[in-house]
Amino acid sequence: MENPFRSEAAAYRFLLLTVGAFALIVAAKALIGTWGATVVFFGEVVALVVYYVRSRNQERPEPAAPEHVGGELDKRILVIANETVGGTALRDEIMRRSEGFDTDVLVVVPALNSRLRHWASDEDGARAAASERLDHSLAVLRGLGIDAQGEVGESDPLQCIDDALRTFRADEVVIATHPEGRSHWLERGVVTLARERYAIPIGHVVVDLEAESAAGRT
Amino acid sequence: MTVHVEAHEHHGPPAPHYSSRISPVILGILLFIASEVMLFGAFFTAYFFVRVVNPAVTQWPPEGFHLPVFVAGVNTAILVTSSFTMHWALQAIKRGSRAGLQAGLVLTLAMGSTFLCTQLLEYSRLGFSPADGSLGTIFYGLTGLHGAHVFVGLVLLSVATARAFRGHYSPEHHHGVEVPGIYWHFVDVMWIVVYATVYIL
Questions:
Q1: What is the pTM of this model?
Q2: Which of A3, A108, B35, B162 is deepest in the core (most CB within 10 A)?
Q3: What is the ipTM for the molecules in this complex?
């Protein structure tokens, strides 16, 4: 729903709506009585909530695409991953997408936090853990010849993409998640939402850390 | 395959970062409206507490209190009309009509002043004061809070009017009229709620 006071014209329309809404309440009071006015009031509140929910569902921002940087063979890949940042599947995917290109890679690890800690601004632990995972991942990538940069981002992966794209104009985004059923991001539809929001290729890599760990033991 | 460190070719600080995807202007007005809603909400809560929860109140308004519904109704019509002229003023400058802008702002200013003067006049004739029970306190508190907002709106409109007569504003640049206009409509919206709640219902 749009802000009703985003401009003078919008505020004026909102005023007219308010006049109409309260005119109905007053008319109900005069014709039916206090209970009539109460029913009209709550009816208007319900109508407002329904309108808000519907308009919120319909609102889809225009997909945005950062401007390409460099020549035809230059490619910028933004990687969003959390616990899966060190997964083999992700490393393979980065290598595959880098094939034949002069590639810049930026790895962003969201500082996942509990909701309570987030609202209490207690993010130190989450950022430290994310930073540790990132360092480990960068070390592994460098070991494979990929000299990538990395940073710790916000706890919301979509916000991470938003933030990163402002300074790193990526041509592609790769989101790494746990398999279906174990991934909160998939449950929240992060990949789908990212594809709706950005007009650049959004890749999705499933990293099954348990399977990789089991394979490593055998 | 060549893979290397990502190099930032951008010089200087990065572009402004709106982390919530909301522009600062919109965020500012949203925060302002939210704070105002909370302020008025506190007064309305007190009003409804006095009116609904108080077991001593069997009729509303209580005996001995008379609210000037008709005069306040006329005042409401004046204030709503002032929003029409405010909107007209802004539309006029968008079309390049300076005379329309000036006339619209002067009319808005005049009607806003009339509203405030009438309210003050009514205060002197009400027959009760803020010290006369909880109704007196909350009535003056709520209408007085709104009156203070009208006063601030009149100050903003006075500045905009003075600038309009000094040749400021154009079809492309009229932010100085738009912002007082938004505020003025907000004040009107709040009065509709106050009038309907306190005087009518």
A1: 0.63
A2: A108
A3: 0.77
